[in-house]
Design goal:
- This protein is an alpha/beta fold.
- The protein has one domain: P-loop containing nucleotide triphosphate hydrolases (Rossmann fold, 3-Layer(aba) Sandwich), CATH 3.40.50.
- The protein has 8 helices and 7 strands.
- Strands 3-4-2-5-1-6-7 form a 7-stranded mixed sheet, with helices on both faces.
- A hairpin with a 4-residue loop joins strand 3 and strand 4.
- The longest helix has 15 residues.
- The chain is globular.
- The protein starts with a strand and ends with a helix.
- About 40% of the residues are buried.
């Protein structure tokens, strides 16, 4: 059976699409069968994958698209909140990618794990993630848990600017639920324009960061 992972973001621009594409590709490189399921339309993701912005999938399983250069499949969950049984048996990982806050709510009941992306450089980043977790617990009768927080766009040379946010997150969630930070780099920012993944870059630190993230997700 597939392991279903919701990959959410509390605010636009927090690295949700970047994390999804590179994580899915990283899992595929390790030999896993991966499906990225889009809930709502994510224009950045569609541009990155070379998918027509006006494409309507109508939830038909036959309309799964293979993104050959990245090693995973894509499916649009336009008007459904159900993962077909055939997908659960055909893939090792299904990454649910909700495009809005309301979409985040509708996919939570499908998920085995929830990963939250955050841009640590924003002053209120930690408060947003903690608030999201508290709201999630209320919706799930206090049983919902964020399994992993991915901190994107982190300038590791100016860590003192991130210290307060990081401290608040570790105090609330514990260090074990904070993934190693993803460094800020314009090369990552430009990947969607080129239709590439981090695995095609020459920067070892970027590849290593996503490799550690991939290994962390496998261990969930």
């Amino acid at each position: 059976m597939a392991k279903i992972i919701s990959l959410v973001s509390v605010r636009s621009g927090s690295g949700q699409s970047t994390t999804a594409v590179n994580l899915a590709s990283g899992l595929a490189r390790k030999g896993y069968r991966v499906l990225v399921a889009e809930k709502g339309k994510n224009s950045k993701l569609r541009t990155w994958l070379g998918i027509d912005q006006d494409e309507h999938f109508l939830n038909e399983t036959s309309l799964v698209m293979t993104i050959a250069q990245m090693g995973f499949d894509f499916w649009g969950m336009e008007n459904t909140d159900i993962i077909p049984d055939q997908f659960s048996h055909s893939y090792d990982y299904i990454i649910l990618l909700p495009a809005s806050a309301s979409d985040c709510i509708t996919v939570q009941h499908l998920s085995d794990h929830t990963i939250v992306c955050s841009d640590l450089n924003r002053k209120d980043a930690s408060a947003e993630v903690i608030s999201f977790d508290r709201d999630y617990r209320i919706r799930q009768s206090n049983t919902g848990i964020i399994d992993l927080i991915v901190l994107n766009k982190v300038n590791t040379k100016e860590w003192h600017h991130n210290a307060e946010n990081f401290s608040l997150l570790t105090d609330y969630f514990g260090c074990e639920r904070i993934a190693d930070p993803i460094p800020h780099c314009e090369r990552i920012h430009d990947l969607p324009l080129d239709g590439r993944t981090v695995w095609e870059l020459s920067q070892d630190n970027l590849r290593d960061a996503f490799m550690r993230l991939t290994e962390t997700v496998v261990s969930l």
